[in-house]
Amino acid sequence: MAKTLKWKVGEVPTGRYRSFEKRWWPDACYAGTELPAAQIYCKDDYEPKKAKTGDHSELEVRIACWYWIENENPLRQSFRWRSLKQRFATLQEAKDAAESFVSNHKEIWPAKLTKT
Q: Across the chain, what does the average pLDDT equal?
């Protein structure tokens, strides 16, 4: 099965105020687009070493649920972030859950991707 999502980790903070900035956990766009699909949230800052060993707080997966804004002419789409109920201990579990949910629920995809 082809991957639906393309994951990207937040950039390492640089510059004058880098000590005050937080590195973001991975987020995903639909493969081949820049349209948001999922993001992973954790109370702790993203550190690759801790993410690999699982030495962090539980992970939350948020999914972008796309919908039509009907009060506008022309119609356009937007999305809301919705969280999965389950929490995850490892980064790979969280990514797999997001991939599975998005693949099995095409009704939340942007219209650009669901046209046949």
A: 89
